[in-house]
What we know:
The protein has 295 residues and is an alpha/beta fold. The protein is built from 8 helices and 7 strands, in the order αααααββββαβαβαβ.
Amino acid sequence: xxxxxxxxxxxxxxxxxxxxxxxxxxxxxxxxxxxxxxxxxxxxxxxxxxxxxxxxxxxxxxxxxxxxxxxxxxxxxxxxxxxxxxxxxxxxxxxxxxxxxxxxxxxxxxxxxxxxxxxxxxxxxxxxxxxxxxxxxxxxxxxxxxxxxxxxxxxxxxxxxxxxxxxxxxxxxxxxxxxxxxxxxxxxxxxxxxxxxxxxxxxxxxxxxxxxxxxxxxxxxxxxxxxxxxxxxxxxxxxxxxxxxxxxxxxxxxxxxxxxxxxxxxxxxxxxxxxxxxxxxxxxxxxxxxxxxxx
Length: 295
């Protein structure tokens, strides 16, 4: 019996191997070529992005964002935003670096100097131009409020009196726009007037009389600015007791077409200063230059 079973296994085993071998030897059916059915894609760059076709440069398509050469650190992606960002500005980095590199000086004179500079900076910021004030009062009354509130005086056309604040800083000026209020004269004697504050006097078309006597910060930059703002109207200009201007700033007054009287100090008289005065009178023959304290 065992021999019969053994012979039967020998007969089946070769047939099984032949069937598997024949199945492996059969050729596979040909698959269709997928490259023929797919559309041809444009060439890609190394980062698997489609290549960008070059376009001609058009200046009209350039935006303000395209002109920025860098992004501020607080606007970059993934940067840390917090409530302290409120106190950040683009211009405070230089001051911080200067503060870190300056040795600490706690002497009384250094503290006094720091406090004085801080108060001056605050006053300079308070003298900045406020558009809302001009929109409410108009240019004439806005300038009048600015001058009188800081110790100056103003005079309007068709009025025979000057408006000046009392010792309690009280004064009478309209608080709303009035068409008939037009400034004729401005007196800034002994005012703590910064260059940044002159912007509040712009667009005054009929000012004829202007005095800056005793303004310590008055220099060549002031002269250059007022010679542009009042070039078509100013008749009288007093800049005595202002030791910081030179003949270079004085030369800017040639722009003033109607200037008749110019009051200056005699202590500034050098050869170049006298030459500048002569040139001003040559440009404007009607100009009368008064030197020294003549009142």
